[in-house]
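Notebook B, p. 112. Complex prediction, attempt 2.
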Amino acid sequence: MVEGLFLGVNVIDDVARLVKNMLVSYSERLDKLVEDFERDLASGVVNVDDYYDAIKKLVGEVYKDVYYFMVNQSKNPESIRLVELSRLMLDFYGKLALHIYRVACGQVDPNVRDSLVLLGESLMSISMSKPLHAFIYLLASIALKQGNKDVAVRLLRKINNDLGRIVDFTCATIDVARMLESMGVRSIPE
Amino acid sequence: MNEHFLLDTNVVVDAVRYVVDPAVSKLRWKVSHDFLKKHCRDVNCFISDLTQYIELPRVLMKMFLSNNVRIEQPGSLLSIVRDWVNEWLSKLKINVISIDVSDYEVALALVRACQGSDSTSPTGILEGAVNVILLATALSKGYSFVTTDENLVCGLSGAVISNFTITYTIEGLCKAEARLDVNNRRLNISVYLISDKCRPGFKCWHGWCRTP
């Protein structure tokens, strides 16, 4: 799927599936929640407050699982390897998010661009251990993809975020990076 | 009321570093990118003119030289670099404020307070003198200060600026409160430290940042 993303085939569908699959690995209950959300979107009756509460509850359960794991399994050598692998995966999610941003900011259709930026945000949030934000961004992205900007904006407001600012800043940094790259800059020394 | 932020040079550059060089991608770069994206709305993020005219051109010159960049355009190198800085700031929607002599007076008071304290000495923090002036400017103007300068934040914790309480928020980001009395005025702002050391258990210990 990641290879497909780099080849640019069915970009938005591939990225949406990729991000959803990654998040569902955190909680299978998210799968059902996304299904319900898509159905409600299609019938035009999304209650943003209910979905926010459901996500908060779900995140609480994820944290409980992580806490249980850390308390009971953290000294087991296998678990330590698992924790190291998780760190690598979180780093990978962050890097993949950066690639998604680049793909997103090159899109002509603003709805596709914004939806992809939010999928990148979702992965970035996972890489920064912010599952509440990750799940909200995923739902907001689905809402945008289905042309329901109002639901996306209201969901983002729940986590005190603004769609315009997120997209503007993300694409501005990508733009600066591309300008630098066109001059041959590959890194900015510290 | 919207919170206003004064950013140090590294915070602005790190946000771009993160996108330019994803292969390295340090936590500090990622958090800077995230911080600006989430907190800078409309016209509430600022750098100082000192950062615009001196610090950022210094970073850009180093970047050009280390990447073997050829500049085709003739003319004054400084003005070309300044144009670059301004284009960068305009794209990221970061504004510029001037540092006044009154802000410098606050910096003097800050260093004096440091000299009068038993627990800290100004020597360490003055290695990053520009950031001392930036913190003073933020205090003077009532802006929150966003920095990556661990030595400054931990160097000033304790008696120098009262109630410097570091609280863990997300990994890579610490929040503190800075207070300073100047000419019968109590100046009080938030300080955000972006550092790899900001993890649970973070604390300042004899002027240095420590994590378990």
